[in-house]
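ingest -> fold -> write
write: protein_1
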Amino acid sequence: MRKILPGICLFWIVYLPLCAQSIEEIRWTGSYSNTKLPTIFEAIEAQYPVRFFYRQEWLEDIVFTGTFSQEPLPQLMQKLLQGTELTYKPYQGPYIILLHKNPNTLNHGRGREGEDNLIVIGDSLSNQGQTSATVSGYIRDGATGQGVTGATIFALPLEKGISTNINGYFSLSLPIGNHRLQVNSLGFEEESRNIKVISDGSLSVDLYEETARLEEITITERAEDYNVSSAQMSATRMDIQKVKKMPAFLGEVDLINSIELLPGVSVAGEGSAGFNVRGGDVGQNLILLDGISIFNPSHLFGFFSAFNADLLSDATLYKGGIPARYGGRLASVLDVSVKEGNLRQIKGSGGIGLVASRLSLEVPLVEEKSALIIGGRASYSDWILNRVDDMDLRQSEASFYDANLKWTYRLNEAHKIGLTGYISNDDFTYTRNTSYGYQNKGAAFNWDFLISQDWLSSLTLSHSRFSYEVGDLQDSTRASLLQAGFDISEGRWNVTRFWGERHQVDAGLSLSYYSFEPGEQQPYGDFSLLTPETLAEEQAWEMAVYLSDEFTITPALSLNIGLRYNQYRALGPADVTIYQNGNPSGSGRVVDTVSYASGETIAQYQGLEPRLALKYNLDARSSIKLSYNRMRQNMHLISNATSITPTDIWKLSNKYVQPQIGDQYAIGYFRNAIGNVIESSLEVYYKDIHQLVEYKDGAEILMNDQLETELLTGIGRAYGAELYVAKNLGRLTGWLSYTYSRSLRKVDGQYPDERVNQGSWYPSNFDKPHDFTVVGNYQFTRRLRMGFNFTYSTGRPVSLPEGTYKVGNQDIAHFSARNQYRVADYHRLDISFSVDGNLKKKKKWDSSWTFAIYNLYGRNNPYSIFFRNNAGGSLTAYQLAILGRPFPSVTYNFKF
């Protein structure tokens, strides 16, 4: 670590100042003869991080003849446009927008308000001597009718503004009188409105896609300097369009695998479902899809995401500084939104790949009011198992499917309701002796409505069910079918209050009801002599209330402070075993059993969860941020594996298993350069975890009606530093990140069998100190681009035998202390090439081809190490690699 941090600091001192090049400093040299302007613009873009936007038809007949020698860009633009009807306007640093001098040219017959028309907001009868009023409304996509997230509304000459929320809604307080509103969103044409504010009222504006030479800029759904100006830290909003350009395993676009390339996020290895965030295990991540809780986010051993990217609009990962509206998990929150259907015309998209195919359809049901989007994927992936090195996997079968549905209805400008449905299913048969199946399905009802001009409310009701089954056919007389699952019903209500220009207050309430079926084991087949067994169900209630305020203290200093109160009750009916000294995991023995009636409280836990985030701007391009959050988790993933498996057990807190509590502290330095083209950050964090659930060595966790006797309680700590640098504009875009992190645990009980590693600290299963990632996308031409990503990480910890001893005639392995060794380091390079369809403006069918190679140089990355006894009693080590060769793929994508 001491060697690494100086290198990071040197990078900060040397590299970032070099990036801070303004447009005025860009100088161009070139000689041209009757050269079209787009050719000149393309050459400049290839060398500098600057982008030009214009209407293609404006430049069709314009050519330039002349020579430039170190010509500053502003003077160059004046010479190129001299004698034309065009002018230009710099926009937020790296964007050069060409405008027509005749304003009427900008109104394309869509019937929009002209710039000289005056729109009156409110009426004189409603004005009771007020000096200011609230203008609210929606910014919508003119093509689909859906709200535009993160659009900016700027009032002139006051130079004050605001951004729209996730539904495209805004609320802006303005003095009574005349104003000019400018509405911008990247990828859309700028719109202006002259308004006269008399009293509170509403205004809605439609934005239309910008006719630009390069199609890739429909990027941000937030202010471009959000990473610097916002108090939120340790959060990443994943741009779905960028995700689609990244190399994917066998051509399937994958949100989860893209998240795993972010700093602070890791996986145990290939073939691992779930992800680890800042030292947390896979069960400590809250994953929401339109409010539906998702418990296994992956298909096919983690190689594919359980989310169809064609149907997603937004995804945000919170690693720290978690807002007060979220709770229930210690490590992270991944909030994913399904996009709404097109309100104005039928649209469709899909893809055909080597492993799976997908199709989605958007249908307007009531024009401008209601739409439906539906889509699904299905696999035909058995052939891939024939290419892996493990012989048992070659004799196995695997398949998956998932489907989404979302219906939305706008009752009026103030009310919108929606229904979302989701199902995900996986089946896997291992050597035809063992079968696994797991399924996640759920539904959610969402209602967004305006209480008043300054009050916005959101209500979500959801239900989610996760279930799995395991069939064991190895011994026909002991063949069994194990089934387990659980249901979660949840309600969340959030209200947002805009208090002037300085406060945004959020408050809310959430209720959750849990019903767990720990396991039912039945005989499987005609010859099985197994005795049926069913474990008792578990029920619980969880309630939380919260309040937070995003407070702008000064233009440079802002504070987000919140408090969440959580209460949890484990409920009957249940028979609870009583142990001597109240200790189930030590030397205590069973002394009694207490029965609880239905609805009776077995155990109750409660506590406060404070949240704090502070931001201070050093200048217009950089800021320092601090954050703290406490989280409580009442659900526990009990597993002796390194990632999610179908035999994992989710258990509720009860009399003997207490809630896990985590405290995380973080500090970060954020800096942007070249007009926000370059984003960079350095974050350092420390996390304490209390009442951590661990398992005993050799624990039996499957179908155990006294599972608490196999569990131990410990503490954990995690700390690290994360460096992130991203380039968001130009032919080459992408990011690089480096993470140094440690994840340690300690279990030191009263008795020897209550200790792990003799009570000393030991690495967790997902402790991987070094992680380096490079992700890039290069646009060769308007139709051809290349994507690549390289990742390197330290090998994960394992426990290995250090010798053998005999018991009778049997050799027994003597294992090391837990996780004292590591598998070899992991590294992999993936590439992809995409060829888009023709560039005709009016076409009913658009298509593209993506060619990809996963694990380009065939790295044999080890997943685990296992041992076999030799004839002489010695042990031989073997290394298991899931994929040890390159995997090429081709995918045909289409839209209509």
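write: protein_2
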Amino acid sequence: MFVKKFKEITIKDIASVGGKNASLGEMINQLSPQGVSIPDGFATTADAFWLFLKENCLAEQLQNLLKGLDRKNFSNLNEIGSIARKLIFDGSFSEAFSASIVEAYNKLGERKDIAVAVRSSATAEDLPEASFAGQHDTFLNIKGEEALLTAIKKCFASLYTNRAIKYREDKGFLHHDIALSVGVQRMVRSDKGCSGVGFTIEPESGFKNIIHLSGVWGLGENIVQGTVNPDEFYVFKPTLQQGKQAIIQKKLGDKEKTMIYADYGKNSSVVNISTPLSKKEKYVLSDAEVITLAKWAMAIEHHYQKPMDIEWAKDGVNGELFITQARPETVHHSKSGKVHVEYQLQEKGEVLAVGNAIGSKITVGTARILKTPKDSHKLHEGDIIITDVTSPDWDPLLKKAGAIVTNRGGRTSHAAIVARELGVPAVVGTNSATQGIKEGQTVTVCCAEGKTGYIYQGALPYVKKEIDFNRIKLPNTEAKFILSDPEKAFQLSFYPNDGIGLLRMEFIITHMVKVHPMALVKFDQIENSEAKTKIEMLTHGYTDKQEYFVDQLSQGIATMAAAFYPKEVIVRMSDFKTNEYANLIGGRQFEPKEENPMLGFRGASRYYSDLYREGFGLECKAIKRVREDMGLTNVKVMIPFCRTVEEGEKVIAIMAEYGLQQGENQLEVYVMSEIPSNVIQAEEFAKIFDGFSIGSNDLTQLTLGIDRDSELMASVFDENDPATKKMITMAIEKANYLGKKIGLCGQAPSDFPEYASFLVEAGIDSVSFNPDAILKGIENINKAESYTTAIAN
């Protein structure tokens, strides 16, 4: 059989039609009934390809040709690839084969010359161990019988592109064992709409509960090649299944170019036009469309029982969404066990460029500014490729690179996909790397600081350590994180932990929001014109400036809550001091000047004050959105620096006014135990709050009467002081007696084994650590628990 309709194909037909076409047939048969839309089509078979080679006496010629390949330096790859492609393209299709293609095409178009996509699908392609984006050619917008036959022959010839030959050599495939099937699929008018890709796993960390979608206006080639920086959407699977608004994060890409057909329906080439400003500032998908695609992606993953890499498109004529391709994800699916390799930069230097971090590694090397793959002679093993953008033609070069840095492209661009598969760090979408980095310069490429990647000048020291999480036993005392940066949340979720005991909201406000909340509430009253201009720029696209604060803060918190779901995530409401609040954009106008901000207008006192009450309301709205709209009910709230019982009552009442009702939807509200009054009146505070968290730094400060920011008094500040430890012991004993949970957030339990023993013996419920201290902290608590058990026995 020369041709099979997609409806006649299942995943068992990989040997006949290749992975790509087998997947399309499988989805049309199995997932279309579930509402997943896939454009119909047909595929030529491997048998047709073998017969084509036989009838044109090409098999032996190709085998002999490939015998002459320089397999050490690949110096004659260009020549051999060119000859092989010409041999195939000069061959002739039999009348029977051509007639089969024409008949299938006419049936697909109901006797009309419809436009189709013509895609190559090798018989070993898209298997988990052999998936490699862009090895063979695809032709879009093909219309008419003759044009279709020519495009199919071009696909056959693309089995011998230079990159495909090199790929098979690297993977150990025998060239003469691989056949090529061609998929012919109804065109989706994404040239007038949008298109993109998706992963049913977070592509950097491998976190399994995220669906990551990205998209651009027009044809998808811009996103695959990384020509533009796309929009990105992160959807949380567990709450998506619950019917919640599960989009936990959105990022607007610049989408500078839109790829369209030069002359639709006449088999002409594509052109990249400048995207109008109105579309650059608009997301390519509505929230409802993101949810639809995410549900489809989850259905595909469930059907195949493995993480998947999908392509999607939206028809700009009828507004319909389609899945155009699906293949197994190849980077994370095969990783087993919990052996974690951690990279840490020991010091920082001058930043030369910043972009999206791919992977989590660090490498040092020589920068090579390459314009095209023809510059390959400049590249030595381990050099850092610095270029504008990569395409599959770069693949042989990328194999030699120590790292890849591009001006353009997002997390699903060609450079990003290849970097993940090769296991090398990459920083994509820097916009200016080729201008900011000099040829031959020694640089450090760092992807170990979250989702943002940095290229530093010079060779900076770093350490690499391997950690086997399987050997780490969590103690009975809960070991939690102290966290602030959402970019690191997914990666850190793999560490042994019991959740987040302290999520510092301040980092998210400083880095994601940047604006003082009262400057958004009272924007019209801002006196500083420079601040006003900055706020206008940041809030562009938001009809309500207060919504900007709620949206950005809720995304940051939701990312952290999703990473550790369903473990509890305790979010401390903002605890800036007045001098820190004043440093936010527009903040100086709304903050009083204090001699000692550490002991002044901070924590609970702010929340019910007319000076900040509406700003606190925005914080409450963000928490409410995370818990109720997004469904992340593992989020709990903590009130810092609550001096009196009356303050606690006021704050609980104001939270209720803004929709955060304690006890509703399992909402728990904790209080920081960091002031002696919190310990002395623990019984009264316990009537208001659901639990306590000891802030050892502030409690030490106020017990000993020392400003913890004072350099002069640093030698006296000591969490091990008997008075401080007495306060902590009292707090724990009272909480235990009252049946309230109590934890501690601090460095001492990881630094000092004896401090961990003191907390365990006192009966602490949980201890929270900074990320760099949690493993040592767990070790110290385990030792303390073993010692306590041994003494008891």
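write: annotation protein_2
The domain at 672-793 is CATH 3.20.20.60 (TIM Barrel).
The longest strand covers residues 115-122.
pipeline exit 0
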